[in-house]
Amino acid sequence: MAGLFSKQAAVYAAARPVYPKDLFTKLAALTPHHCLAWDVGTGNGQAAIGVAEHYDSVVATDVSEEQLLRATAHPKVRYLHTPDATPREDLVAMLGGEGSVDLITVAEAAHWFDLPAFYDIARRVLRRPGGVIAVWGYNYRIIPVEDMMARFFNTTLPYRDPRAWYCMNGYKDLPFPFNDIGLGREGEPASLDIDHEMSFEGLIGMLRSGSAVTTAKQQGVDLLGEREVKELEEEWGGASLVRKVTFKAFLLVGTPRAED
């Protein structure tokens, strides 16, 4: 996973939408304690910063050092590099031990994980009772430019990592073995709208930061060459136009099962 996002870390940090504040308010209302949260696959820290408004401390981890170098500093957030080879016991210890975490958040990253291994750690570190895990993501469903985005998406198909299909399918088939608490469950994600004012430059930056575009470029194919960008510009309505768009995101939230 780290290799997919390290090279375009600066572009990723500048281009991605900001998650709505009311999402973090809703998640915080689900946990009786607000001592410690863990933001996994934190990237540039967008979700970690939102979580930090409601919790005393946030541990924000990522496998990519390049992403963490561009993460937003916050007095309540501690960023940690956790390579894929990090032993589970070490990771549990970094988080304060078993039963220490009130909220786990994963924004636009769960589909890249070794899910059985991650969920095992999540069950161990979540507080019992009261611990909550929330994962969410978004794809090319962006209103009102959904048709344009779908056409671009089709050009990326030969370069897509199979894991990305969880996200492309709106997490409808993402394993999520936790008890439903009313904000999306396994097989039935809740809808989450992310409103965003986007410039054409921001759109191109977001597309360039995608894993499939990076993979294609590594193979000598530029999916966003001069001709492709010009076509997108015409569909967008001009290079200077700033549009109000809505990312049609998806959300899964749960608590550990008693038998786990």
What does this structure look like?
The chain is α/β, with parallel strands linked by helices and 260 residues long. Helix content is 36%, strand content 21%. Strands 1, 2, 3, 4, 5, 6, 7, 8 and 9 form a nine-stranded mixed β-sheet that branches. Helix 2 (9-15) packs across helix 10 (200-208). It is globular. It starts with a helix and ends in a 5-residue tail after the last strand. The model is unreliable at 2-14 (pLDDT under 50). This is Methyltransferase type 11 domain-containing protein. Residues 39-134 form the Methyltransferase type domain. Pfam families: Methyltransf_11. InterPro entries: Methyltransf_11 (IPR013216), SAM-dependent_MTases_sf (IPR029063).
Short description:
With 260 residues, this protein is of the alpha/beta class.
Instruction: Please give the share of residues in helix.
Output: 25-40%
Question: How many beta strands in the DSSP annotation?
Answer: 9
Biggest beta sheet summary = 9 strands, mixed
| Elements, N to C (H/E) | HHHEHEHEHEHEEHHEEHHHE
Roughly how many Å is the radius of gyration?
18 Å
Structural class: alpha/beta
Overall outline: globular
- Spans where pLDDT lies below 50 across 5 or more residues: 2-14
Beta-strand percent range: 15-25%
Give the N-terminus to C-terminus distance in angstroms: 27 Å
Overall pLDDT, averaged?
A: 91
* Contiguous helical run count: 12
List the helices and strands and how they pair.
Elements lengths: L1 H5 L2 H7 L5 H9 L6 E5 L5 H6 L5 E6 L2 H5 L7 E5 L6 H7 L8 E5 L7 H11 L6 E6 L4 E2 L2 H11 L8 H4 L10 E2 L9 E10 H9 L2 H8 L7 H11 L5 E14 L5
Helix pairs in contact: 2-10
